[in-house]
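The protein record quoted in full:
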Amino acid sequence: MKLNSTLSDESVLLITPLIDIMFLILIFFVLNSSFTENRAIEVDIPKTITGSALGDIESHIVLTIENRIFINEVETTKSEFSVALLQSIGSNSNPIIIIEGDKGISYDFLMSIMDRVKVLGFDNISLIVNKL
């Protein structure tokens, strides 16, 4: 007894569903992957037990052990610090200012930068630390 086949001799392999599934897999991996942030300025941040997540940062100040100052990854000097900070903030009246310093910087250097920020009238200052 001969079985009737529904397939013709000119069978076609459809790859459209395969392509759709491959794109879905690609989108899944792209959305679930984590990207590392390559930092241009390397500092050794101190570790603490307490700490919290940051919100939107308006201005990011980095202080290095060589007493170099960076505002949003642009180097500035102490004499140009106030002008550079005001330019980086723009028209925001109550910005979040983050200060990140190497754990080897002097306390005097940190306080002089914080004092300059306070003199400009900004009170929302936070220090970055690594959580233990």
Q: What stands out?
A: The mean pLDDT is 79. The chain is about 30% helix and 15% strand.
